[in-house]
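ok posting inputs for the 2'-monophosphoadenosine-5'-diphosphate job
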Amino acid sequence: MLHAGVMGWPVAHSRSPEIHGYWLKKYGIQGSYERVPSDPSDFETDVHRLRDSGWRGVNVTIPHKEAALSLADEATPRARAIGAANTITFSRSGRILADNTDAFGFIENLKERAGASWRREAPAIVLGAGGAARAVVHALLESGARTVTLANRTQSRAEALATAFGPPARAVEWAGIGEALAGAGLIVNTTSAGMDGRPPLDIDFAAAPADVIVTDIVYTPLITPFLDAATARGLIAIDGLGMLLHQARPGFEAWFGVAPQVDETLRALML
Ligand code: ATR
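and the output
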């Protein structure tokens, strides 16, 4: 029996057990994937306990993503660049390997849903400057985005992020988003605004080109007010569920030995 799971505090809300549970059944693997509540003060001890009891690895969610990177023996370049890890694998010799698959999930979803219609040479606008924005900016730059324009309610955070990545990432004022949308090829919301129970972002899409792709990494609700507003203007809108599904693939493959597919049954299960 192969064991893996997700660590968080709280962790009850995590949808990862449904994803991995679906794949374990689909591929006929003798394995389990469990929620592991882990208080931040116990996180390191909990990781070692799971490793020592023979687990294959874990996903890590809020608030442990930075701690997961710091306690790792090895980390992938993308985890280092993002400054956080969401996937830990225990090697046969007991080493702790940290990866960040959020950027991978974001790009795979974009490729699957937008295909060739994403214009990489046009500016990509990223709203927000938290951990999720870091993963998205990394993903965009890795995949050849010519310019990444960051805007955040607290401007200093957008500037810090732009400085951390360097050109072609740059920051603009939150109030200047409307103008920044002119000529954009992609607009990504990474803020937590519009999540269930929170006030939505009020973005004016008037200046955005007709072929811009609008995407939100929030998936509760599936269609955020941000995506709704984009659709109302006839723009292409891509929800964030696919990012969640695709980010789970590398961990599943590392722990259970099968490269899983995101299929329509899984998507439907998550709605
Ligand atoms: P994460 O690391 O998961 O991305 P975070 O660091 O809390 O989470 O970042 C949340 C992001 O949503 C921030 O960019 C935040 O803006 P501030 O830096 O100004 O706090 C943004 N955000 C949250 N609520 C918002 C709102 N109502 N309007 C605009 N931005 C909002």
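notes: Residues 128-133, 152-154, 157, 190-193, 199, 201 surround 2'-monophosphoadenosine-5'-diphosphate (CB under 6 Å). The mean pLDDT is 96.
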